[in-house]
Write a structure and sequence with these properties.
Recoverin, domain 1; globular; 20 helices; 25% strand; lipid metabolism; transducer; hydrolase; alpha+beta; EF_Hand_1_Ca_BS; PH-domain like; 5 domains
Length: 713
């Protein structure tokens, strides 16, 4: 750590250029790597918690562009970081220095990953007074306090009884801590504590058990240890606050952080996390193709990746987008990356969706690399299927990679024919020339044979050992004309839905309408952040983010029409009663013109139900003016939901503006993953920011949902 904080000269590699010598060092808080000189100035940094992996040697795409003898591999290392998995490629002057950085970074990464969320939030909170002391004199002047409060998004009267020592006009550290406790006392939590402790301000085990059963709807508590801290003036007892702000008080069911669904059913009974144009870092015209994107999506829980293969120079097949004018990557490098990362996040099967544009000779080379690199991951000889007409389960296929090969075909077309009693819908492709498909490559395909869609109705009764791909334009027409038939089709074979070719910006469609009809593989552009990808992430988070979600029973067997007013006749509706109580440390909008110096926000909360068409709705609270630090709403929103098994609940916080509204943050949770009772809803990628709610889930017969959960507090 000392060596890293002192800093060393390292060469930063970039493209095929000579490289830039920069001074790299670990900051004083051991929270990020910095370097200088840089045109980015203070922004030239990589935070430790954004690092995915540190690799020794010349393994990155950047290093591969240089001659093999250019650098000593023992002096080279790469840092993979960020949401889109960029690489920082560095060369040191000696192997010992390289080992110091690799060992140190891995140590720091382990510390970050093991640190619980509460401790991380506490560390962030402790840095507030340090950063506010502009002149470094160890105290905060009244002006510095007001600047800090403005940054914290709170507007308070100028007179507060915190300056108690002889040094009037400024606050020392202890005085500031008292002042912060004064303004941050949670009235909402305090009232809950008082109501269950018989006005004692302390919860004993009996009080806690009563609170957990009555409010949190937890029937059985195992191994509970509750530590209460002494109560100082104007402060809430620390033990109860820490518990309510810990993962145990989060709205997300902690048991859903692991696989909790039946994984022994046929593949057709699952939604599968699927990536489109996996290799791209951005849009379809100018962005780069990078092997690191396969590592990124697989570690994000994706279980179906796309590989677009073309003939390359020197007989080596390459991967790139047909429209892309920039980089290309070797097929072999892609397969090696998939082999390395396929089962780091999930042990359930990966589907390799190959869009094949190659000639037969290069297809043979592809088959050779697949066999040599993936080896026993391709061997399905020991997979036993009891019913030959059904696909095997994710459990049986653990650790296996399924190959799907599709010859490049023209765009699908729709044909509709009418008879006196029926309307027939056909999605037609040209008859592919299978003489163009290498036998060596086709022999690798077993359970995921790529077939064209010709008739939604009749094909629903054919073999299930096949998969079809349709773009969103065709799918939308089928959904409009034959939604029930599409559900039945999806009960028999796998179906992949991918974005239209017109989405050259790599934007994402709304996946929910395709999930509603039971489509298994709804392909998303993982490189494009935003609302649609957030829905996808929420969907697959409810089963340990393993990439597989069990479909509702009504989608797996029998008739079901997702667009009807009553899709489940005879089934009781579920009522969701949400009380939006308060907010905590809500920031100013990211794109605020003046940043932290901008106006204090006027927040409100919008809650949206995303599911079947009949269930989709949204409601919002009133606006609280001039308070992003601890706004209080105390408003109740009520939603009636016919099919909660497939619904998502999206919480969004907005800043009201006379000419519109600005987005603050969001959290989306699968309905089935929501915990009842008093819960914090932490906004995504915001360690401190949350809204505090009360959740009640009731079926229309009046039965309240309970949970039997083992807690370790």
């Amino acid at each position: 750590m000392c060596t890293m904080q002192t800093g060393t000269q390292l060469t930063k590699m970039k493209g095929k250029k000579k490289g830039l010598v920069r001074f790299f060092y670990l900051d004083e808080h051991k929270s990020c790597i910095r370097w200088r000189p840089s045109r980015k100035h203070d922004k030239a940094k990589i935070t430790i918690d954004s690092i995915h992996e540190v690799c020794e040697g010349k393994k990155s795409e950047v290093f591969r562009r240089y001659a093999d003898n250019r650098f000593d591999p023992n002096c080279c290392f790469s840092i993979y970081y960020g949401d889109r998995v960029k690489s920082l490629d560095l060369v040191s002057t000696n192997a010992e220095e390289t080992r110091t950085w690799i060992t140190g970074l891995k140590y720091l990464m382990a510390g970050i990953s093991d640190e619980d969320s509460l401790a991380r939030r506490q560390r962030t909170r402790d840095q507030y007074p340090l950063s506010a002391d502009k002149n470094g004199d160890g105290t905060l002047s009244i002006g510095e306090v007001h600047q800090l409060l403005h940054k914290l998004n709170v507007n308070l009267p100028k007179q507060k009884e915190a300056d108690t020592d002889e040094n009037q006009g400024s606050l020392g550290f202890d005085e500031f801590c008292s002042f912060y406790k004064m303004i941050s006392t949670r009235r909402d939590l305090y009232l809950i504590l008082i109501s269950y402790s018989n006005q004692k301000e302390v919860l004993d085990l009996h009080d806690l058990a009563r609170f957990l059963e009555n409010e949190q709807k937890i029937k059985t508590v195992h191994c509970v240890l509750f530590v209460d801290a002494s109560c100082s003036n104007n402060s809430l007892p620390l033990g109860f606050t820490n518990y309510m702000r810990s993962p145990a008080g989060d709205i997300f069911n902690p048991e859903h952080n692991q696989v909790n669904q039946d994984m022994t059913q046929p593949l057709t009974n699952y939604f599968i996390a699927t990536s489109h144009n996996t290799y791209l870092t951005g849009d379809q015209l100018l962005s780069q193709s990078r092997v690191e994107m396969y590592a990124y999506v697989l570690q994000a829980g994706c279980r179906c990746v796309e590989v677009d293969c073309w003939d390359g120079p020197d007989g080596e097949p390459i991967v790139h987008h047909g429209y892309t004018l920039t980089s290309k990557i070797l097929f072999k490098d892609v397969i090696e990356t998939i082999d390395k990362y396929a089962f780091t996040k999930s042990q359930y099967p990966v589907i390799l969706s190959i869009e094949n544009h190659c000639t037969v000779p290069q297809q043979k080379k592809m088959a050779k690399y697949l066999r040599e690199v993936l080896q026993d991951k391709l061997d399905l000889s020991n997979v036993s299927v009891h019913e030959c007409k059904k696909l095997p389960s994710p459990e049986i296929l653990k650790g296996k990679i399924l190959v799907k090969v599709e010859l490049f075909l023209p765009t699908h077309t729709i044909t509709i024919t009418h008879t006196r009693t029926h309307t027939h819908l056909y999605a037609i492709q040209t008859s592919p020339d299978y003489s163009r498909l290498s036998r060596a490559l086709s022999d690798l395909v077993k359970y995921t044979k790529s077939v064209r869609v010709h008739d939604i109705e009749t094909q629903a009764f054919m073999s299930s050992w096949q998969v079809s791909s349709l773009d969103e334009t065709v799918m939308n027409q089928i959904l409009q004309l034959k939604p029930g038939e599409l559900v039945r089709f999806n009960q028999r074979q796998l179906l992949r839905v991918y974005p239209s070719n017109y989405r050259v910006d790599s934007s994402n469609f709304n996946p929910q309408s395709y999930w509603n009809s039971g489509c298994h593989m709804v392909a998303m552009n993982y490189q494009t952040e935003g609302r649609m990808l957030e829905l996808n992430q929420a969907k697959f988070s409810s089963n340990g983010n393993c990439g597989y979600i069990l479909k509702p029973k009504c989608m797996c067997k029998g008739a079901f029409n997702p667009v009807l007013e009553e899709p489940l006749p005879g089934h009781r509706k579920t009522q969701l009663v949400l009380k939006i109580i308060s907010g905590q440390q809500l920031p100013k909008p990211k794109d605020s013109m003046f940043g932290d110096r901008g106006e204090i926000i006027d927040p409100f909360v919008e809650v949206e139900i995303i599911g079947l068409p009949v269930d989709c709705s949204k409601q919002q609270t009133r606006v609280v003016h001039d308070n992003g630090f601890n706004p209080m709403w105390e408003e109740t929103l009520v939603f009636n939901i016919q099919m909660p098994q497939i619904a998502l609940v999206r919480f969004q916080v907005w800043d009201h503006d006379p000419i519109g509204r600005d987005f603050i943050g969001q959290r989306t949770v699968a309905f089935t993953s929501m915990m009842p009772g008093y819960r914090h809803v932490y906004l995504e990628e915001m360690a401190e920011s949350s809204i505090f709610v009360h959740v009640a889930i009731i079926d229309m017969a009046g039965k309240v949902w309970h949970y039997k959960i083992h807690l370790q507090i």
